[in-house]
Amino acid sequence: MTMIAPGRTIGILGGGQLGRMLAGAANQLGFDVHIFCPEADSPASRAARKTWQADYLDTAALTEFAASCDVVTLEFENIPVLATETIQACGVPLHPGPTALAVSQDRAEEKAFLNGIGIATAPHEVIHAAADIPAALERVGGTGVLKTRRDGYDGKGQAWVRSPDEAEAAWSAIGEAPAVLEAAIGFECEISVIVARSSTGETLSWAPPRNVHEAGILSRSIVPSGLDKSVESEAREKAMKLVRALDYVGVLALEFFVLSDGTLLANEFAPRVHNSGHWTPEACQTGQFEQHVRAICGWPLGDTRRLHDAEMRNLIGDDGLVDPASLKPDETLTLYGKRDARPGRKMGHITRRIAPRKD
Ligand code: ATP
Ligand code: MG
Q: Is it true that domain 189-356 has CATH number 3.40.50.2000?
C-alpha cells in the first residue's frame, strides 16, 4: 500500500466521540476529515470538514461519500457490514475491513474466532430461546451473564442469571434476542490491550490499563496495571496474534478478565480505538488516535512507549458539566461536545498524569 499523504481526505463511518478524537489526530497530521453518520449535529461532524448525514444503508450517499475520500475507517463497530462492502465496491481503501467487523458484531462468532486461534474466553453457550437457558446455566457453572449476540455496548443487552428460575426474566430483559450465556467470572481485575497493526504488518501495543467498571460502564483506566509483567506480556502477545489472524489494519482493543492466578480470559474485542486507550495521547509517545491514522494511511507506526503513570476517568452524565476551574495542574480535560448530559452518557474524560514512569 502506498502512503496516503497529508492533505488527502480520511472518511470516518460514525459520528461519536471516537470519530471526533480521530478527526483531531487526523487534522494534526494535515488530513481533512469527512464524516458519514445518521445523526444531525454529531460530536465528530463538528470537528470535520464535511458530513454526509444519511442512513448506513443509503447506497447513493455512501457512494458519494466514498468518492470524496482517499481512505475510509470507522469509529463504531455496529455499522452494517453491507455499508462497508459498498465502500469497498467503490474501490476506496477501507480499514478495518468487513471481516473484523463481522466477527466483532456477533458475540458467538467472536468467541469462536478467539477460541479458534488459541485465545481462551469465559465458558459460554449459544442461546436461541428461554428454554435453552436452564441446561446452559448448569453447563457454565450455575451463574452466568446472558448477553445479546448483537448490538450490546456499555453493558446494555445483558442480564445476570443466578438460578434457572431467572431464565424467563433474563430472556425478556434482553429483548428475547439471540444470545450467549457466559459463565460468571470471579475476576481479580480487568485489563485491555490496545494494539495497532499497519498495512505493512508492523504491530505494536501499549501497556495494558487496568479497567474499572461501574454499572456496566467503564469508569477508570489506570496504568501501570500493577500486574506481573509476564501477565501483561501474555495479554499483549494475544492481542498481536488476534490482529495478525484478522489481517487487521488500524487500532483494535482486546478486553480481558484476569483471574487471581494470572489466567487471562478474553472478554471481547472492538475493531476501533477504545475508551480504555483514552490516556495514551497524554501518557505515551504516540496516542491511539494518531496511531490509527498512521496505520490506515500506510505510515510507519509511532512509538507506543509509555512516559507517565496515568489514570483516565470517564465523565458520565452530569459529571460532564465540569467546572474548568476545578481541574488540577496534572489533569487534561477532553469533552465530546454533546449537547445534553443524559444519565449514563459518556460526555468526556479527564486524564491525570500521576508521575513520570518509573518501571
Ligand atoms: P463495553 O461497551 O463497556 O465494552 P459491553 O456492553 O460490550 O461493554 P461487556 O464488555 O461484555 O459488555 O461487559 C461489560 C462489563 O460487565 C465487563 O467489562 C465486566 O465488568 C462485566 N462482565 C461482563 N461479562 C462478565 C462475566 N462473564 N463475568 C463477570 N463479569 C462480566
Ligand atoms: Mg466490554
A: no
Centre of ligand 1 from the C-alpha of residue 217, in Å: 8
Residue ranges of domains in the chain: 9-94, 123-183, 189-356
Q: Burial of 322 by CB count in 10 Å (0-12 exposed, 13-18 middle, 19+ buried)?
A: middle
Rounded Cα distance between 148 and 84, Å, is 23
Q: Beta strand pairing status for 71-74 and 9-13? A: parallel
Residue 154, pLDDT > 90, answer no
Residue range 261-284: mean pLDDT, rounded: 98
Task: Supply the pLDDT for residue 358.
Answer: 84
Query: Is any ligand 1 atom within 6 A of the Cβ of residue 77?
Result: no
Q: Ligand 2 mean position to 277 CA, how many Å?
A: 13
Alpha-helix runs per DSSP H in 57-128: 59-67, 81-89, 98-104, 107-116
Q: What is the pTM of this model?
A: 0.97
Query: Measured from the CA of 213, which atom of ligand 1 is nearest?
Result: 20
Closest of 192, 159, 183 to residue 269, by C-alpha = 192
In CATH, 9-94 is 3.10.150.10: no
Given a cut of 70, is residue 317 above it in pLDDT? yes
34-74 pLDDT, tens digit each: 999 999 999 999 999 999 999 999 999 999 999 999 999 99
CA dihedral 265, 266, 267, 269 (to 10 degrees): 170
pLDDT digits (tens, 9 = 90+) for 122-151: 999 999 999 999 999 999 999 999 999 999
CATH architecture of 123-183: 2-Layer Sandwich (3.30)
Burial (CB count <10 Å: 0-12, 13-18, 19+), residue 46: middle
- Do the domains spanning 9-94 and 189-356 agree at the CATH topology level? no
Q: Are 136 and 127 a contacting pair, CB within 8 Å?
A: yes
Instruction: Give the max Cα distance, the chain.
Output: 60
Q: How far is the CA of 181 from the centre of ligand 1 (A)?
A: 12
